[in-house]
Design goal:
By secondary structure, this protein is mainly α. The chain is built from eleven helices and eight strands. The longest helix has 47 residues, at 292-338.
Length: 391
């Protein structure tokens, strides 16, 4: 082991557990602008209302600000903010490139949305605004008018095809580069030291062996497991690293994004069905060993199960990660609402315990997704030896 002393284990675990508690430092420009406006409105109301009424408004402003922080944390964005100073109004971070396809390619910096008049960015004769409602980019006119749906409140303007490097995309790229660097070093370490890895990268060797011996071989079999190992290792460490990034104060929520988990589930779905043998499809459309009438009834049910399996993968990963972020951020927000020596420490302690639990969930969800993928691959390659029933 690279880290062999128990105090070192405790320090690392404590640092990881405390990381989500600092997520409130990751603010965005829109949230600060709305908070400043609400504070000004509260100041105006103070002059005409009693003190008790004023306290109710102040509490409502705190709750609104906490809600904005939580929404900002779980949603994707076109810029990256490290931290913000509400007193000075300064935001420390960097913009990300906006890449749109709308009857041609449009490329500009996301900072132009904040510096342009009314937030309208002109590009090749067209005008675009960043909606504060859902964080998406819409085409509009020179005045920046957005037409909203009466029922849902979502803008109905034309949306260009968005290829922008958002915060989630940025961390997907960072994770991919990090995995490439670490496992390239691990492979070179194997080659140089006669199959015995050295250095920090050897900490990943037990996980690689675990995935091979406890996930791939038992579920897929000795004969076919090797052709799926590269995917299983990639998907496990990809989900794990992104889950860990989500526990840091960086404010990323990649695996809690529905489109990301959908893409991962589609990959498992395609690999399962494109590499399946004839026995797999025979078991679905004409199940052996059962009466003919039952085969007709079971065929559509089995076919439906082909699509339900990746759907369950998608929902399980998305729901667990997203809910974990919401719960921790909400409990941290209670500290600012209670403002007492009893309620605030209790909220802090509960948030700390849940943060430790989320570290376990980060590993557990990566394991479950990988294990179920291996289980589906195994069922697609299983050799069936059923004799047809004679009636």
């Amino acid at each position: 082991m690279v880290i062999s002393r128990k105090p070192s284990h405790f320090i690392v675990a404590a640092l990881l557990a405390f990381m989500p508690l600092f997520s409130f430092a990751n603010d965005n420009h829109e949230a600060h602008t709305q908070t400043t406006a609400s504070q000004e409105a509260t100041t105006a109301v103070e002059k005409g209302h009693e003190e008790g009424h004023h306290e109710g408004h102040e509490e409502g402003d705190i709750r609104s600000e906490i809600k904005q922080h939580i929404n900002h944390h779980v949603l994707d964005s076109h810029d990256f903010t490290l931290f913000a100073d509400d007193k000075t109004g300064k935001h420390f971070g960097f913009p990300l490139p906006v890449i749109l396809w709308d009857e041609g390619l449009h490329i500009f910096s996301s900072s132009e949305f904040h510096h342009a008049e009314n937030g309208v960015v002109p590009s090749k004769g067209k005008f675009y605004v960043l909606s504060h409602h859902d964080g998406k980019i819409y085409r509009t006119d020179a005045t920046g008018t957005l037409t909203e749906d009466a029922k849902s409140g979502h803008p109905t303007n034309v949306r260009p095809i968005d290829f922008s490097i958002t915060k989630s995309v940025l961390f997907i790229i960072i994770t991919a580069l990090l995995m490439f660097f670490m496992f390239t070093r691990l492979a070179k370490s194997y080659a140089k030291n006669g199959g015995i890895p050295k250095g920090m990268v050897r900490i990943f060797e037990p996980l690689v062996v675990f995935i091979r011996d406890e996930i791939a071989i038992p579920n897929i079999g000795e004969k076919n497991y090797k052709k799926y190992m590269s995917y299983l290792l990639t998907i496990f460490f990809f989900i794990l690293f992104l889950n860990i990034f989500g526990l840091t104060p960086l404010g990323v929520n990649v695996t809690g994004n529905f489109t990301i988990t959908f893409s991962l589930a589609i990959l498992t779905f395609l690999i399962t069905n494109l590499t399946a043998n004839k026995n797999y499809w025979g078991h679905i459309f004409w199940m052996p060993g059962v009466p003919y009438l039952m085969r007709i009834v079971l065929a559509p049910i089995e076919l439906l199960g082909v699509f339900i399996k990746p759907f369950s993968l998608m929902i399980r990963l998305y729901a667990n990660i997203f809910a974990g972020h919401i719960v921790i951020m909400s409990i941290i927000g209670l500290m600012f609402i209670f403002k007492s020596w009893v309620g605030s420490p209790l909220s802090f302690g509960l948030a700390f315990v849940l943060s430790i639990l989320e570290i376990l969930v980060a590993f557990l969800q990566a394991y479950i997704f990988t294990m179920l993928s291996a289980l589906y691959f195994g069922s697609a390659n299983e050799e069936h030896h059923h004799e047809e029933a004679h009636h």
